[in-house]
Write a structure and sequence with these properties.
Blueprint: E1 2-6, H1 11-22, E2 26-31, H2 39-48, E3 61-63, E4 70-74, H3 80-90, E5 94-97, H4 106-109, H5 111-131, E6 136-140, H6 166-185, E7 189-194, E8 197-198, H7 207-216, E9 221-223, E10 230-231, E11 234-235, H8 236-248, E12 268-273, E13 279-280, H9 281-292, E14 298-300, H10 316-322, H11 330-344
Parallel strand pairs: 1-2, 1-5, 2-4, 5-6, 6-7, 7-12, 8-11, 9-14
Antiparallel strand pairs: 3-4, 10-13
Helix pairs in contact: 1-8, 3-5, 5-6, 7-9, 9-11
Length: about 350
C-alpha cells in the first residue's frame, strides 16, 4: 500500500513508519518538526530512517538514503493548500494521522497550538481524505479523553463528555469530526486511544524520560499527587502492532451507502490501545531504580491541573476484532528504554 503517516519525526510516528517501510509498504512521512521538545531528537529519528537533515526544506519531498520506499515532507497540517497538493499528487491508499500538538500541561500555557494543530489540522486531513479517494483513515486519539470518568477499566462504550484539559477536548473533537465524515461520506475512520506510551526514542516531556535523565544526573524527580497515581503504561512495540492491525483492518464501508447511513453501519470505530494492567507510579519508579542501580531523589508534589489519578484500558474490542492484546511487562520495557537512552546519549 501507499500510506501517508503524519508525525513521523515524533515518537509513535517514527516507529510506525519504520515498521511499515520494513514490511514493504510505500510510505510518505509528514511532520512540521516543531520545537515543543528537542528538535535534535526529532532529526535523529528522521536520520535513523535515512532522511538527511540538510536536505529538509519546507514543502519539499526528501527521499530516504536508506529505504527506497520511504520519503519525507516537512509541512504544517494547517497549510491546507499544500496538504491538498500532496494528496492530489501522491494518491494515498490509506492515511495514519498521528501528528498533533501533544502534552496535557502545555495546553494550559499555549492553548492556540492545540486548536491549530489538533482541530484545524485534523479537519484538513479529513477533507483531504474525502476529496482524494483515500480508502481509510486511522488517527491518534488519547486515553485523556476519559477525563473525570470514575469507572475503570475505561471502555470505548463509556461516555467521555468530561475532559479535564484542552488537549483531551481536542482529541474528543477529533473523534466527533471523524464520525461525522464516516457517517456523511462513507469514509472508514478509526480512532486510537493510546495509553501512556513509553520505550526507546520516547518523548523528553514524559515521565520515564524525565525520571531516567534526572536520576542519572543526580537530580530530584517531581512526583505528582504525592505518588498516588496509576498509569496503564504501554510499550511502543505493542502500540505499533495495534496500529498496524488497525491500518490493515479498517471498518467496512457500506456497499449500498446512500448518504443516510445509520449509526450502526457508519464505518467508524474507536479502540483503546493499552496494556490493560495499570502500574502504581511508585512501583514504576522503583523499577527504574532497579534497572539504573540507583535510587531516585523524590520531590513529592500535589496533583497538577489537567491531570488524572488513574488510567486503565479495557482492550476487549481490540482483542475481539483484531485478535490482539498488548503484553510487554513494564520492567522489560523500562530496561529497553534505558539501554537506548545510554547508547543515544553516550552515557
Amino acid at each position: 500500500m501507499k500510506i501517508l503517516i503524519t508525525g513521523t519525526a515524533g515518537f509513535i510516528g517514527f516507529h510506525l513508519a519504520n515498521a511499515l517501510i520494513k514490511r514493504g509498504d510505500e510510505v510518505i512521512g509528514l511532520d512540521n518538526i516543531n520545537d515543543y521538545y528537542d528538535v535534535n531528537l526529532k532529526y535523529a529519528r528522521l536520520n535513523e530512517a535515512g532522511i538527511d537533515k540538510e536536505k529538509i526544506e519546507y514543502n519539499e519531498i526528501v527521499k530516504s538514503n536508506k529505504y527506497p520506499n520511504y520519503k519525507f515532507i516537512k509541512l504544517n497540517l494547517e497549510d491546507k493548500f499544500n496538504l491538498f497538493k500532496l494528496f492530489e499528487k501522491e494518491k494515498f491508499d490509506k492515511v495514519c494521522h498521528l501528528a498533533a500538538q501533544a502534552g496535557v500541561r502545555y495546553s494550559l500555557k499555549n492553548p492556540d497550538a492545540y486548536i491549530n494543530s489538533n482541530i484545524i489540522g485534523h479537519m484538513n486531513i479529513l477533507e483531504a481524505v474525502r476529496h482524494n479517494g483515500v480508502n481509510a483513515l486511522a488517527y491518534a486519539s488519547s486515553s485523556s479523553v476519559y477525563g473525570l470518568n470514575k469507572k475503570q477499566p475505561f471502555s470505548t462504550d463509556d461516555n467521555v463528555d468530561h475532559p479535564v484539559s484542552l488537549y483531551a477536548a481536542t482529541k474528543k473533537a477529533d473523534e466527533l469530526m471523524s464520525h461525522t465524515y464516516s457517517y456523511l461520506y462513507n469514509i472508514p475512520t478509526t480512532g486510537l486511544r493510546f495509553f501512556t506510551v513509553y520505550g526507546p526514542w520516547g518523548r523528553p516531556d514524559m515521565a520515564l524520560f524525565k525520571f531516567v535523565k534526572n536520576i542519572l544526573e543526580d537530580k530530584p524527580i517531581d512526583v505528582y499527587n504525592y505518588g498516588e497515581m496509576k498509569r496503564d503504561f504501554t510499550y511502543i512495540d505493542d502500540i505499533i502492532e495495534g496500529v498496524v492491525r488497525v491500518i490493515d483492518n479498517p471498518p467496512k464501508p457500506k456497499p449500498d451507502w446512500d448518504g443516510r447511513a445509520s449509526e450502526s453501519v457508519a464505518p467508524y470505530k474507536v479502540y483503546n490501545i493499552g496494556n490493560g494492567a495499570p502500574v502504581k507510579l511508585m512501583d514504576f519508579i522503583e523499577a527504574i531504580e532497579e534497572v539504573l542501580g540507583k535510587k531516585a531523589k523524590k520531590n513529592l508534589l500535589p496533583m497538577q491541573p489537567g491531570d488524572v489519578a488513574s488510567t486503565w484500558a479495557n482492550t476487549s474490542d481490540l482483542e475481539k476484532d483484531l485478535g490482539y492484546k498488548p503484553y510487554t511487562d513494564v520492567r522489560e520495557g523500562i530496561k529497553n528504554f534505558v539501554d537506548w537512552y545510554r547508547k543515544f546519549y553516550d552515557i
